Amino acid sequence: MTSITTLEATGTPAITDSPVVSTTKAKPAFGILGFLSTSHMVNDMMQSLILAMYPILKGDFSLSFTQIGLISLTYQFTASLLQPLIGLLTDRKPQPYWLPLGMLSTLVGLILLAFAPSYAVLLLASAFIGIGSAIFHPESSRIARLASGGRHGFAQSVFQVGGNMGSALGPLLAAIVIVPFGQHSVAWFGLAALLGVVMLLRVSRWYASQHAAVTRARAPAVAAPYPLRVVVGAIAVLLVLIFSKYFYVAGLSSFYTFYLIERFGVSVQNSQLLLFVFLFASAVGTILGGSVGDRIGRKPVIWVSILGVAPFALLLPHANLFWTVMLTIIIGLVLSSAFSAILVYAQELMPGKVGMVSGLFFGFAFGMGGLGAAVLGVFADHTSIDYVYHAIAYLPLLGLVAALLPKGKHKAER
Predict the structure, then answer these.
(1) In angstroms, rounded to a whole number, what is the distance separating the alpha carbons of residues 82 and 354?
(2) What are 373-382's pLDDT values in tens digits?
C-alpha cells in the first residue's frame, strides 16, 4: 500500500512507496501536476518541431530519408541512453534543481536548430534536445507520482497529456510559423523554453521541500509484489509492448507528412495540419488511459491499447485520404492510452525505484522511436513510404504478449 504523509506547512500530500497507513485522505497536488504537464508540453513541443521541420530540412539540406531518420535517432538515442542512468542516480540522491537545467539544454538545442548551417549541426542540436529530455522525464515522472495523492495512473496521464499536446502543437506551429517564415523562425519558440524554466524552478522548490519531509519520516521500504524472476519476466513483456508501440508510432508519425504528400498530393502545410490532428488524438487518448487504469486496472488498458489498434493499423495502408485521417485518429486515441498504464504497472512491480523504472521505460521508448525512424528511413529510401506503412501495420499484433503478464495480487490489477 502506498503511504501518504500530510505536510501541515504546505497542505500538500507527499507520496512514498512505503507501507504506512494514512489517517488522512490525500488529494493530488493539482497545481504541481499542472506545472509539470505544462512544462512537459513546452519540452515536447520543442522536440516535435524537429519532426515537423523534416519536409523543410529535407529540401534546404538535400537530405535523404536515411539522413532524416538519423536526426531522429540522434535525439532519441541520446535520451534513451541517459534516462535510465539519470533515473538510477536520482533514486539514490534526488536532484530537484536538475529539471530547469534540462529545459535549458533543450533551449540550446532549439537555437542550434534554428541557425544550423550544416547537417552536422542539425545532429548536434538533436543531441542537446535529447539530453534535455533525458534529464526532464525521469525526475518529472517521479514528481508526478509524488503529487498524485495515490491516483498514480491519473497523475501520470496528466503529466503525459502535456507532452502529447506539445507533440501535437509542433506540426501546427510549423504550419503557421516555420513553413511561411523559414528555419530561423524556430528561435522564437525559445521564449516558451524560458517559461518552462520558470515553471520548473517552482516545481523544484516544491519537490525539495517534499523530499525533505519524506526523508524525515523515514518510512520503511516495501517489498516487490512478486519474486524476482516474475518481475524480470513482466518487465521484459512490458518492454516488448513498448517496442511494438513506439516502433509503430515512429513509422507512422515520422513519415506521415511524406506519406500524405506522395500518396494523396497533399500540400506541405496541409500535411502538417493533418499530423497535428493525429497527435492531438494521441493526447486525448493519454488522459483517458490513466484514469481508466486507476478504475479497472492497468492490464485491461494495456491489452486494449496495443492489440486493439491492430485492425485499424492493417486497414490504414489501403485507405483513401478521408479514411486515412479517420483511422489515424482512432489509432492515436487507442494506442496512446498504453504508456501511462505500462509505466505505472512497472513502477508498482519495482517499488522504491521510481526514477530508474521511469528512466528505463522513457529511455527505451525514445530509443525504439529513434531506431524505428532510422531503420524505416533506410527502408523508405530503398523501397517507398507506402511499403513502410504496409510493413509496420503488423507491429500492434505483438500486443498478444500482454497475456504473459502475471496474474494475482499486483495492486495495479485491482
Answers:
(1) 16
(2) 778 888 888 8
Give dist(CA 212, CA 130) in Å, integer.
30
pLDDT digits (tens, 9 = 90+) for 342-352: 888 888 888 87
Higher-pLDDT residue of 214, 200: 200
User: Is the Cβ–Cβ distance between 4 and 151 less than 8 Å?
Assistant: no
User: How open is the CA angle 338-339-342, to the nearest 5 degrees?
Assistant: 85
Q: Which domains does the chain have, with CATH numbers?
A: 29-413 (1.20.1250.20)
Three-state DSSP at 351 gives coil
346: left (phi over 0), alpha (psi -120 to 50) or beta: alpha
For cell 528555419, what's the residue? 183
d(CA 134, CA 149): 26
Q: Which residues contact 134 (CB under 8 A, 6 or more apart)?
A: 78, 79, 81, 82, 83, 86, 102, 359, 363
pLDDT of amino acid 220? 53
Q: DSSP string of 159-195?
A: HHHHHHHHHHHHHHHIIIIIHHH-GGGGGGGHHHHHH
pTM, two decimals, is: 0.68
11 backbone φψ class: left, alpha, beta (φ>0; ψ -120 to 50): left
Nearest residue to 45 (alpha-carbon basis) of 273, 288, 278, 279? 279
Report whether 395 contacts 244 (CB < 8 A): yes
Task: State how far the Cα of 399 lies from the Cα of 407, in Å rounded to an integer.
Answer: 17
Q: CA-to-CA distance for 184 and 114, rounded, in angstroms?
A: 5
Mean pLDDT over residues 30-52, rounded? 85
Q: How far apart are CA 284 and CA 294, in angstroms?
A: 17
